[in-house]
Amino acid sequence: MDFTFVVITYNHEAYVLEHLESIAYQIREYGQGCTFQLIIADDASKDQTLALARHWLNEHANLFTDVQIHTQSTNQGTCHNYTKVWPHVRGDLCKLTAGDDVYSCENLLAEWRRLNEYDMSSGFPLNLVDGRLTWPTFFNMNMVASNRIYDHGDYMKRLLGISFNHTPSIMFTTRVIRDDAIRDFVRQFVVTEDYPMHVKMAERFSPLSFAQSPLVHIYYRRTAGSTFLVRSATFDKDKLAIFGYLRDHVARGFERLLMSNRIFCYRQTSRWKRRLMNLNYLVYGTRAVLHGLGILRDYSQLKPELEKHRLHYQTIRFRAEAHQAAFLRSTQGLD
Q1: What share of the chain is helix, strand, coil (3-state, %, to 5)?
Q2: Which of 66, 108, 127, 289 is the most buried (most CB within 10 A)?
Q3: 0.85 exceeded by the pTM?
């Protein structure tokens, strides 16, 4: 099997068809001569997510050599849902992405093959809000800054300090999902799978290699309920737990002091206190200033071609809406 797409879903009925259509686009446009596996990992959705996916597969299953749908009767959280399908991945390459995001129009299959020698590789995102694609200048500028600041260093340093990574755009080597220690560590958390996964990867695969692609890989959907926008008690517990792990098991000397300060600031209820009292932002900002010319030079080389991506998304959205209409007709007995 050449490639596995893993789709992570929970109540994604409004978006899952767009996600699946973007996978179909990648296969039809760039997947000639390759074999593909599709795995859907659903965390007990209460809406029509799985019904829509199955209806879509009635027409598109021929794109895949193997299709698997894994669900459960009760919601068990992102981390369990994310890791439960790892043993079923058969592809030499594998991409795990949430079912509400959309793959871009770039030749991602070729880009992922090109970067497969690295443990991790990442593209840049476009934000997808209310059907509109935009270039997130602040975030992507800080992705460039993080790559410049931590370039050629121990990847764990990125995790100990302030850094900007876009997990939905990251491609992991398949040895990650075949590592039981990484899976078991991630399962100690509930909704925050990315940070713990990166930490354990950096411990297990030292030195951990990372490459940044200049291309847009993902249209990242931001909704009012997005986990990173809505702090919950579970999210806070996960974040504090991984910060505590880094402080107690990884950080040394001044790094431990900075991590203790980060934990203290994260516990503050005031957003301004969390920012202004956090020494880690001071360290990051100082290093960004020192690397300023290099950051500006790297950022100026990015060419996102927004109109091309917007046209692609409109095509994907149109196809998804057509399938949505066909699904509704079938449920009403009109077909």
Answers
A1: 50, 15, 30
A2: 108
A3: yes
